[in-house]
Amino acid sequence: MSMRKIILGLLAAAALSLPAAAAPTKGKAQPPPALSAEEQARLPAVEAYLNDIRSLKSQFIQSSDDGAAMATGTFQLLRPGRMRIDYNENGNYIVADGRFVYFWDAEVKEQQNAPIGSTLADFLLRDNIRLSGDVTVTRMGQDDGVLEVTLVQTKEPGQGSLTLVFEEKPFGLRKWRVLDAQDRTTEVALQNPQFGVSLDKDQFYFRESGRRRERD
Q1: What is the pTM of this model?
Q2: Which residues, in sequence order, are CB contacts of 175 under 8 Å at separation 6+?
Q3: Closest CA to 160 of 19, 29, 7
Q4: Which residues contact 132 (CB under 8 A, 6 or more apart)?
Q5: What is the CATH number of the domain that holds 92?
Q6: Which of 23, 94, 80, 16 is nearest to 50 (CA)?
Q7: 197 lies in some domain
Q8: pLDDT over 90 percentage in the chain
Q9: Model confidence at 160, in pLDDT bands (50, 70, 90)?
Q10: C-alpha pair distances (Å), 164 with each of 50, 136, 171, 175
């Protein structure tokens, strides 16, 4: 899998949005539509739910809107600051250690990295998640027991969006979609997610082989 596909995988599996060249725009960008009072009233409950997720481990299925890319793997989250994505097919993985996000291409044995603060990884990994300020909720949709919450970077809304998909009863995060600046969509569906699990912190450090960091 190429580094380009790895980064697209990161966008989906980690619900991130890496900085990209701005798409051409015509005229001044339009402000997002305002949420209704009822939708605004739901945001604190969604925030509280997200803040309660201190750790998460799940298998996932990743797909693209054109059907050309499909992948499976394991997603792990340990807030604040830590995340790991392991792909089943090829040994590629992504890890966030609290400061940087690293992308490892096992085929060519190369890594790339970016500061967490330069990506929307910061939104998911920060100690206090807020659906306001540097992110803006542009849409809330509810249908057949499913709630969708779409958000963008407040200062750069044209760079793409992230849609979190929740089951209503019981309320829980089940999938997400990333729409990038080129209008490409990637979706990740969680399979049997486990919340509040104990995770080994040693695995949230970059190692070229993918092995856990050796203890001192």
Answers
A1: 0.79
A2: 165, 187, 188, 189, 190
A3: 19
A4: 43
A5: 2.50.20.10
A6: 80
A7: no
A8: 41
A9: confident
A10: 11, 13, 12, 6
